[in-house]
Amino acid sequence: MSSLQITVVLICIIINFLDGFDVIAIAFAAPVIVRDWSLEPAALGVVFSSGLAGMVVGALFLSPLADRFGRRPLILGCLCIISIGMLASALTDSVEQLMAMRFFTGVGVGGMLSSLTTMVAEYASDRRRQLAISILQAGYPVGGIIAGLASVQLLADHGWRSLFLVGGTMSVIMIPLVYWGLPESIDFLLGQRKSDTLGRVNKLRARTHQGTFNELPPGDSSQPSKTSVTEIFSDSYLGRTIAIWTCFVMAMSAWYFVINWTPKVLIDAGLSQKAGISGGMLLSIGGVVGGLLVGWLSSRVRVSSLVAGFMIVGIAAMATFGHLGLNLIL
Hints:
The chain is mainly alpha-helical and 330 residues long. It has helices at residues 3-37, 41-62, 66-69, 71-89, 95-123, 129-158, 161-181, 186-192, 197-207, 238-268, 273-297, 303-321. The protein is globular.
C-alpha cells in the first residue's frame, strides 16, 4: 500500500482506539466515583447507559450526515464533540452532569464509527482490506486495555477526573492530525460532481497508485443509491434482518454489560482496586484476540458457523465466571 493508504488506515485505527478508551474509561473510574459521591449501583447503571444511549443517537442521526457533508468533516466534527465531552466530564460535580457529558461523548463516538470503517475499506488495498478492517475493529478493545493501564496509575495518584482529562487531551491532539492527514473519501467526491472533483479525485488516485481519469466516470460510483432502506424489511430479507439485528443487539448488550460492571463487581467482591482493573483489562485483551481470530478464520470457516461457535464459547465463559470464586487468574 502507498504511504497515503497506510496513513489513512493508521489514523482511523488510532481514532477507534481513542473511542474505545473514551467509552470504557467510565468502567475503571466507576468504583472511585461511587466512593467519592456515595452512589448507589442503580445510579451508576444509568451513567453507564447514558454513554451508550448517546452512541445510539449518534449512529442513527449524526452518522448519515457523512453522505451529505463528507466522511472527513464528520470525523472532525465528532472528534470535537468527543473532546468537549471528555474534558467536560472531568469537571462534573453531580450524577446528572456526568450523565449529560457521557451522553454527549457517546454521540460523537457513535457518529463516526461507520465512517471509520468506510474509509479503511475504501483506502486499503484489495489484498490488505480484510486485515485492515480486522485491525481497525481490534483497536476498540485496545483502547480499553490502555484505559486500564492508565487507570492503575492515574486513579491512585490523581483521582478519577484525570482519566477523562487524558482521554479528552488525546482526542484534541487527533484533530489537527485528521485535518492535515486524512483525505476525503474518493467515492464521496465522485458523488459530488463539482467543478474541481476530477482534479481532486485524480490527485488522490495517483497517491494511491491507481490510474487517473480523463473525465468523471459515469455509473453507480457517481450516483447515490436509489434502494430504499425499507428493502431490508421486505419478505425476502425480513427474517435475516431480524436475526442479524437480534444477534448484534444481544452481543453488544452482553459485551457492554460485562465490560462496564466487571471492575466494580470484582472490587465489591473483595479484590483490590488494581485487581478489579486488571479483570476489566483482561476482557479487552480477549476482545483483541477474538476480533483478530475471527478475522483470520472468516476466510476459512463459514461465517454463520463461526459466529455461532464464538457465541457458545462466550455463553459458557460467562456462565462459568460467576462460580470461580475470588481468584483473579481464573
